[in-house]
Amino acid sequence: MNRHTVSGSRLLLVLFLFFVILAPSAASGVSGYTKKKMTREIESARSLLGQGEIDRARAALQRVLRMDPNHVGAHHLLAQMAFDRDQWAIADHHINWLLRRNPRDETALFLSALLNNRTGERLKAHTQLRILVKIGARNPAVYRELAGYLMEDGHPEEAALVLVLGTEQSASGGVLIQECGEVWKKLRHPEVALSLWQCTRAESAPNIPSLFQQAYLYHRLMDYPEARALYESVLLLSPEHDQALYNLSLIHRSEGDQEAAARTLERLIEVSPGFELAYAELARVYLTLDRPQEALDLLKRYLNIGNDPDLQVLAKEAIARLSGEDQDGDGGPAESSNDGQNKESDGSR
């Protein structure tokens, strides 16, 4: 074998080693060792974020980008971090990089929609959310955001449909079913809302928001035994739940149990003295029970702590009547035109 043949064989061997061993790393631009190092940095960044160590997490992600400027995970995290801290320009930089790479990147497209909404580009945000819904996004927040837009624009029926679609596509269908129930509640269809809330009952452990909303909807449908049982379940889990106490007192009144209504309202004022409607309601109950002095004392007490100007006026008028200062009065408290009085609370206070 001559010298040229040997040299040629060595060249072929070198080329073989390059393509078999080095070419994969050259194609990706990153060696196997570097990939492991980047994985550790990403894990470290996530851990640091969980601990609130924002600067250290950012530094770890920037080290990743120095090793591989095209690392998608690092760009995602940096975009989210910047967005969460109102650093719009930085967030936009990473989002645009991600969308140039993949226009259907769900995470980047959703962040872009949120960013556009924050910066006044509402129509663009709306369009991006519709694109995400069209491609079947798995993030339930996509459907929640679009439904929110539609509610604001006066399209509650379409909002409900978007949420139903989200229950089929996203990973958290139960949450969206409940939100769909909220939409139907606002549309004044408590029976539909209740059916939707009940769909999630078997899927999740009893929780206060779910129990309260179902109680409220039964209350609206005037099914007092079911409503009372559910309000009591709420109070077993949270004895100081002011809205459950208030609504339970209304059920007691509707069922003619004024003593139970009084006890419930007294408990409510004890645990939540700032729940102003309770004073007006309890004064009415005291008068029904022929306990005018207690009603008078309660209203005077309310004047010292109340902030609602309408209720303050009504309390003063009632005090005047009960004190005999208003000769034309009928001896009872003034009737309120306030929508919250004698009306169950829906939990949105």
Automatic annotation (TrEMBL):
Entry keyword annotation includes Repeat: yes
TPR repeats: 208-241, 242-275
Protein name: Tetratricopeptide repeat protein
Matching InterPro entries: CellSynth/LPSAsmb/PSIAsmb (IPR051012), TPR-like_helical_dom_sf (IPR011990), TPR_rpt (IPR019734)
SUPFAM superfamilies associated with the record: TPR-like
Pfam families: TPR_16 (PF13432), TPR_19 (PF14559), TPR_6 (PF13174)
Region (Disordered): 322-349
UniProt xrefs under Gene3D superfamilies: Tetratricopeptide repeat domain
Signal peptide limits: none
Keywords of the record: Repeat, TPR repeat
